[in-house]
């Protein structure tokens, strides 16, 4: 395994704070629970902990917890190296029967393999609602580390874009694409719901389709352009299907403005966004006296 392909990338303070905590806990054998949205790099953080631990030369085994049978799950745990690191990926996806089995197997592994678990689900809330075993939650949640979503690391987006583009283009034997200032700003404004994984997939697409070219806004995927486009301001008024009598509405707005200002015509005009002379003309038009 090439460790360079499994490096955590980022320099935002929020991200570096989590990485620092991970390296602090790495030399110990404490159980770690890594949480965060899908695609933020939970497995990469687990590998970072493993690489800075005394078990770095032992196996790092990933056991997926989503959609596995009890037999398959038990077999995966049985095959885990007792001297390495066991990473339980998406432990919140475990069915109750799996959770009971996991507790039993963790008792057998106690003091042997280093345990790291991850979840994109809120395990504490699941525990409160009866969807996750309380004893298992407290067994896993010894040192909690939460990775922030990419939208909270906007300063990292351009750097990740550059690093992924160069890395992927090199793997294809091609020149990396470049990005215009406008394109970079659009990419920074996009919320990246799939987080770092989505950004890397985007970079792969651009490395293939835009080799050595300057990426302009029109070259970006439609969903990114749409999400980053300024939203139109919505009117506070909605025209009813049956329509309105505009003259009646205008007269009513003038009466309300005069009532709110105690009959002060200058203040009422400011509330309505019109000049005092225009207000006087429309008051006369609607036979309004103040």
TrEMBL record:
Q: Which GO terms describe its molecular function?
A: ATP binding; sequence-specific DNA binding
Instruction: List the signal peptide residues.
Output: none
One Pfam annotation reads HTH_8
Sorted keywords for this record are:
ATP-binding, Nucleotide-binding, Transcription, Transcription regulation
SUPFAM superfamilies for this protein: Homeodomain-like, P-loop containing nucleoside triphosphate hydrolases
Q: Which GO terms describe its biological process?
A: regulation of DNA-templated transcription
Superkingdom of origin organism: Bacteria
SMART domains associated with the record: AAA
Q: Please report the stretch or stretches of sequence annotated as the Sigma-54 factor interaction domain.
A: 8-208
PANTHER family linked:
ALGINATE BIOSYNTHESIS TRANSCRIPTIONAL REGULATORY PROTEIN ALGB, TRANSCRIPTIONAL REGULATORY PROTEIN
The entry's protein name is Sigma-54-dependent Fis family transcriptional regulator
Q: What is the lineage of its organism?
A: Bacteria, Pseudomonadati, Pseudomonadota, Gammaproteobacteria, Chromatiales
């Amino acid at each position: 395994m090439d460790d360079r392909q499994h490096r955590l990338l980022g320099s935002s303070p929020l991200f570096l704070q989590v990485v620092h905590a991970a390296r602090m806990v790495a030399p110990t054998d404490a159980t770690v629970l890594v949480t965060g949205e899908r695609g933020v790099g939970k497995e990469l953080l687990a590998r970072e902990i493993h690489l800075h631990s005394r078990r770095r030369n032992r196996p790092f085994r990933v056991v997926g917890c989503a959609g596995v049978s009890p037999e398959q799950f038990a077999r995966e745990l049985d095959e885990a190296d007792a001297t390495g690191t066991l990473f339980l990926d998406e432990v919140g996806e475990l069915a109750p029967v799996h959770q009971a089995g996991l507790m039993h197997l963790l008792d057998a592994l106690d003091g042997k393999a280093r345990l790291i678990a991850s979840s994109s689900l809120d395990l504490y809330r699941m525990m409160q609602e009866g969807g996750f075993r309380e004893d298992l939650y407290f067994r896993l949640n010894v040192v909690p580390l939460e990775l922030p979503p990419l939208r909270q690391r906007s300063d990292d987006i351009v750097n990740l874009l550059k690093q992924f583009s160069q890395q992927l283009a090199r793997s294809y034997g091609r020149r990396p694409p470049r990005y215009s200032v406008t394109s970079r700003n659009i990419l920074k404004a996009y919320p990246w719901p799939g987080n770092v994984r989505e950004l890397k997939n985007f970079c792969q697409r651009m490395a293939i389709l835009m080799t050595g070219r300057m990426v302009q806004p029109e070259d970006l995927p439609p969903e990114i352009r749409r999400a980053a486009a300024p939203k139109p301001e919505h009117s506070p008024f909605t025209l009813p299907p049956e329509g309105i009598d505009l003259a009646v509405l205008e007269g009513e707005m003038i009466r309300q403005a005069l009532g709110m200002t105690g009959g002060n015509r200058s203040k009422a005009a400011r509330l309505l966004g019109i000049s005092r002379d225009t207000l006087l003309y429309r008051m006369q038009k609607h036979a309004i006296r103040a």
